[in-house]
Design a protein that fits this description.
6% helix; seven-stranded mixed β-sheet; six-stranded mixed β-sheet; mainly beta; disordered N terminus; single chain
Length: 469
Amino acid sequence: MQLPVENEFVMVKRLALTALLLLMAVPALAASPVDLTVYQNGTVLVREVRGFELHKGTGEIAVMGLPRSLRPGTLSAESVTAPKLFRVLSSQFRSGGLSSTQILQRHIGKMVQVVLPDTRDTDSRRVAEARLLGVEGARALLELEDGRMWIGPYEAVMLEQAPADAVLSPVMAWRFRNTGPKRQDVALSYLADGMDWNADMVLTRRGHDQWGLKVWATMRNESGRDFKNARLRLVAGEVSSGAPKPMPRNMLKAEVMVMDAAPGGASRSEFGQWHLYDVGEGFSLPQGAVTQVLLFEVPDMPVQRRLLAESNVGVSPRSGTDRRPLEVRLEIDNKDSDQPMPAGTVRVFEPGPEGTPLFAGEDAVPGVPEGGRAVLRLGRAFDVTMERRQTDFSRSGKHRLIVAYELTLRNAREKTAAVRIRERIPGQWKLLSASAEGRREDAGTLVFDLDVPKKDNLTLTYKVQVELK
């Protein structure tokens, strides 16, 4: 049969009204400030106080406005008004958010009303009674009333009754016993997944050797709930949790950056073996959004630039010249900041020809305590190169070798280049001779720190004795 467009709208509105009535049956709760403690492993601890209208005796109540990722076994509820007179006896959590495909799959084999394109008029629509045989995306497999089969697109499916669990948002149903007053404030506490934070640090060179560091906390909310008027705390460090791993950053859907700067940064305190940042109150963390807050800044951070070349000392004769790239590294000494550096990403900016800061690389760093050191790997040097060749290889015993190398460093820049040479040596070894001072960094590493003059070359030679057993 042909259906006027306005009647289709009436049917759609009627279905929407049915779903709305289901939601209205759940009591509305007064909004209150939320206390969020966010961990770096994708877990958030939520604490909030809500007002309830509770009758005397045993009853049931539905609690809404919960995140879809809530861990039901972690929910605790305690009356603030009458702690000894209110008890939750049992609870049932429904995460909600049934998809249209899930609802339709429940109706496979049943008769439904379907809005289909009119095969006689592409601008018209018709409503058909049909048996639903299958659904795949926007296409349906239908058995029409006249026995024909429809395989193709459909615009809407109208059901006689909405499923009882077709709620749009999570619901926690409580069975309770109340011997106290009717109106009570109840404190809720629970863990949820899908919210994490990471440190995004900006290291900027302002003068010749002056660097400033700003540490931002970047939070992603994929918990399934909007949080408003929240007090925000952040825990830095690895806290063991049974939560699933956070969603990879590159798989998050549309995100909105919300910039909130806490005046003067966050206050920090120790919490067990970790650090707790109290960012403040009044924050909004919408579902699917990225929120960034300033934790702290260090106006003068000691930083040293080095070029690093790492090589293995061979235990067999080698010929020819080996050209080695030099890795650009920045070493941050966290000794005067009075702040530990949380784990995260450090992005480096340096002045360009016109003085405008330009991006100069980034690297992930683990947490760095006060007095510790962070090493950033920023890429390969362009104008400083190294050539390395073996100049001697001989045996002085069954397991004893004498090995010598020559390393030539070329600096085409207008500034002196600080270069660290790190040679990995197997077995037991000792340095016999060298053209520059070398040091044993550990049992298997010989290190030379060299300054290569601008627009000049520098040659390093050394000889080691190696015992192999």
